[in-house]
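Sample intake sheet
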Amino acid sequence: MASRLRKKQKDDFGTAYRGHEGQWSWMFHRITGVAVILFLFAHVVDTAVIGWGPEAYDRVTEAYKNPAVHVLELGLVLAVLYHSINGMKVTLIDFFPSLAGHIKVVGRTSAIVFVVSAAIVTGIMTKQIIDLL
């Protein structure tokens, strides 16, 4: 009851995901983790198609030559890249608790590393997608 009666301070950020960048980082980490798990499930299923014979497997792998699938592959690579870089940030903070006092710097540094890496990867993979057209 006391918390409901407390006056709103200017530092109160309201509902979830409208506050610090750490909340967005947490949410994107979960989303990219689910995306990677879904891909892994699909990968196991498409590899299991070999059990139905080489013709079935060839039909499935033929779909991967479609440029739209390569765009989805780019999304997968970006999801893995974000998830791994953010995971390293979380691991560093877990192993070195003193970094928690510098969370904004660590978070922004990891965001910059992701953006630079994503730009490079996107450039390389986009060139390959264009070459398919």
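Comment: The CA atoms of residues 25 and 86 lie 8 Å apart. The two ends are 63 Å apart (CA to CA).
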